[in-house]
């Protein structure tokens, strides 16, 4: 017995030492501030700080020493980087057309900087952590330029101007977090996750995206194993978007630049949206709180709870499920399945839960319509094995 016990203790000691070694290796990363580096302006200092982190194969960049960091180009975060915004504001300068923050894996074509990138490289382990009232904010005076299609000078606002107009953009990132931020004065959509982002966490975000096409948090063209929770605020378009597009949606000639950094028909990074959890979403504004948009790619294994337009209202639907050609012609019945939602609550929306396309093998529980003129559920006749339980119109 003593020999067995001694052998067990030796194994336990070895495991403990191995784990300690792993932790020690994980702590081999630098911590820097933009102010630690030279540069002709703050954007160049930030870029030099991130280059240093990249040399070290990871680290933390801390924004804290200035109340406002007025940047003139996007902050492009490399893999294994944590960006901490502590009690300050990251703000885009006037007349700048760019993201505020994006993953640093986009190889941008200098000859066509707003079009498709030359290549989208894999990235991993990128975090943006806001503390003590951190703010991400667009410009006071938006970029004005000549529309390449109409030849008319105008403000470049909204989704017609493509991916470069998104506030925070992560593409093809495995392992990420975006948390603790107030996002306001956006030029287009707020937080956008495209092309197969996975293993992510978006939480404690206060949205004030009241510009044209001011969508909130969007997963576009592939995404999996992502949790979105504790989202509040006001959006001038949809607050949570799960969108699996195909090429046909974007033939609209009003779109000047592409919404994605790679072609919509390129599903090599991902197309399906699956294993997504959304919890505690309450937003006012325009259009809908949450929408699902499948086309040729599929949407499945979606788990949601506590989705509401809030007492301020303004939304048309709390949850709206598209599919039959509204955002792409490739949709087939069966492309949406395993959708599970609990506690969909409408204060002022006209419909709490609306189906515009069939859903398979799903369950929606506790749908509450508090608007006396509204409707609790609008079903699609093509639904297969879809349960609606505890639906109440008050």
From TrEMBL:
Domain of life of the native organism: Bacteria
Gene3D superfamilies listed in its UniProt record: Single-stranded right-handed beta-helix, Pectin lyase-like
Protein name: Pectate lyase superfamily protein
Organism: Parabacteroides chinchillae
Lineage: Bacteria, Pseudomonadati, Bacteroidota, Bacteroidia, Bacteroidales
């Amino acid at each position: 017995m003593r020999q067995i016990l001694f052998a067990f203790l030796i194994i336990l000691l070895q495991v403990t030492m191995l784990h300690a070694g792993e932790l020690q290796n994980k702590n081999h990363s630098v911590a820097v501030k933009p102010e630690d580096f030279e540069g002709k302006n703050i954007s160049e200092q930030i870029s030099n700080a991130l280059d240093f982190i990249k040399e070290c194969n990871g680290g933390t960049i801390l924004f804290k020493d200035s109340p406002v960091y007025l940047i003139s180009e996007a902050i492009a975060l490399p893999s294994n980087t944590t960006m901490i915004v502590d009690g300050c504001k990251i703000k885009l300068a006037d007349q700048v057309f760019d993201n505020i923050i994006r993953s640093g894996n986009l190889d941008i074509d200098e000859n066509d900087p707003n079009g498709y990138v030359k290549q989208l490289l894999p990235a991993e382990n990128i975090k943006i952590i806001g503390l003590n009232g951190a703010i991400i904010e667009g410009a006071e005076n938006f970029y004005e330029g000549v529309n390449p299609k109409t030849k008319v000078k105008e403000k470049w606002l909204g989704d017609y101007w493509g991916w470069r107009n998104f506030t925070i953009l992560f593409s093809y990132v495995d392992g990420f977090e975006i948390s603790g931020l107030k996002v306001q004065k956006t030029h287009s959509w707020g937080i956008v996750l495209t092309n197969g982002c996975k293993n992510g966490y978006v939480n404690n975000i206060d949205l004030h995206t009241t510009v044209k096409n001011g969508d909130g948090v969007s997963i576009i063209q592939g995404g999996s194993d992502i949790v979105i929770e504790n989202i509040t605020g006001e959006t001038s378009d949809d607050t949570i978007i799960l969108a699996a597009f195909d090429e046909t949606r974007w033939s609209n000639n009003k779109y000047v630049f592409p919404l994605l950094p790679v072609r919509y028909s390129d599903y090599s990074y991902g197309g399906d949206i699956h294993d997504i959890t959304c919890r505690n979403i309450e937003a006012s504004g325009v259009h809908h709180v949450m929408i699902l948009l499948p086309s040729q790619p599929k949407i499945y294994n979606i788990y949601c709870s506590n989705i509401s337009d809030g007492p301020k209202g303004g939304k048309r639907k709390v949850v709206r499920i598209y599919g039959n050609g509204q955002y792409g012609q490739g949709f087939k019945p069966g492309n949406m399945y395993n959708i599970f939602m609990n506690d969909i609550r409408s204060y002022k929306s006209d419909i709490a839960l609306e189906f515009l396309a069939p859903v398979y093998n799903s369950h929606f529980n506790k749908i509450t319509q508090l608007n006396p003129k509204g409707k609790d559920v609008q079903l699609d006749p093509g639904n297969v094995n879809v349960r609606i339980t505890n639906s109440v119109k008050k």
